[in-house]
Amino acid sequence: MTRKSAPQHRLTRRQALQAGAGMGAAGGLLALDSLGVSASSGSTGAHLEARAIQDATPRPGGNLIAAGTGEIRFDPYFNFVPARFVYSQLFGALFDYRGEDPLIPHPQLAESWEETETELVVTLKENIFFQNGRAIVAQDVVDNIARAKDPDIGHYLFAVLDASVESAEAIDDRTVRIAYKSVHPVKLDDLAALFLIPAEAMEDVDTAPVGSGPFEFESYDSGDALVVKRFDEYWEPNLPYLDSVTIKIIPDPAARIANLLSGDVDAVDALASSDVVRLQDDDRVQIVT
């Protein structure tokens, strides 16, 4: 939603998932609030986009250049909210929030599922691949649940899954059964935050991340820029539109805005309230929350 001003707000886990999932794969008009960079304290949660980018009809090709505020962590289990763009564009999950109703989990890597109060059986889509070329199988779900339940790794997911999941097993290559310790009504919501990493890439996820999202990691120079490129084997037809996204690390707020107004970047993140007020009537930019 486009607004002329933006109140300060705090994202819930579901809102963060919605923000991250709803942009890059869907066509390339990426909201900087979901670009996976750390928001500064006291920011409004708003961001600016060049109006030409906001108003353009999506078409294949091109590189989006964004300005972020700080260092980026790639492990999707480390800290979800600050890096939700990176996670949702590099990695895939069984479910997301890109359906017609943004409050209800929608199948992503999952094709179908059956559930009781204490059990969930998920069937994966056929012919879905990690960015290293390996097919995604049910054992990958089991491995990632086990990783998330490790208290030294799982961070925010540890408390969610360790308290609820009794066990997980691969029935065959496409089917996984998850048993719960008690009645658990938000099974799909939990799995929307479980981004899958191939077991062979888990150790190096912070330096060479591998997932199944619409973009794959190309390079990251700490303190300079992150570059992700289109994943040609992405499972959703004709997506993403963009060839690549570059996130330049520009900590100084004034410098980020100057880069936007000069055309050196297409979008900036983490705006102070004073910047929103100052720029809300500038026809060159669009303020989005």
Short description:
Helix content is 22%, strand content 22%. It is of the alpha+beta class and 289 residues long.
How is this structure best described in words?
With 289 residues, this protein is an alpha+beta fold. The chain has 2 domains: 139 residues, 3-Layer(aba) Sandwich (D-Maltodextrin-Binding Protein, domain 2); 103 residues, Alpha-Beta Complex (Dipeptide-binding Protein, domain 1), CATH 3.90.76. The chain has 8 helices and 13 strands. The longest helix is centred in the middle third of the chain and has 11 residues. The protein is elongated. It starts with 12 loop residues before the first helix and ends with a strand. The N terminus is likely disordered.
Number of domains: 2
Q: What's the gyration radius in Å?
A: 19 Å
Give the tally of β-strands: 13
Major pleated sheet: 7 strands, mixed
What is the molecular shape?
A: elongated
Helix share of residues? 10-25%
Query: What structural class should be given to the helix and strand makeup?
Result: alpha+beta
- Order of helical and strand elements: HEHEHEEEEHHEEHEEEHEHE
Give the neighbour order of strands across the main sheet.
9-10-11-2-12-1-13
Low-confidence stretches: 1-45
The CATH topology of the largest domain corresponds to D-Maltodextrin-Binding Protein, domain 2
The CATH superfamily title of the largest domain: Periplasmic binding protein-like II
CATH architecture annotation of the largest domain = 3-Layer(aba) Sandwich
Q: State the separation between the terminal residues, measured CA to CA.
A: 7 Å
**Mean pLDDT over the residues:** 81
Name the CATH class of the largest domain: Alpha Beta
Kindly estimate the percentage of residues that lie in beta strands according to DSSP: 15-25%
Helices, by number, come to 8
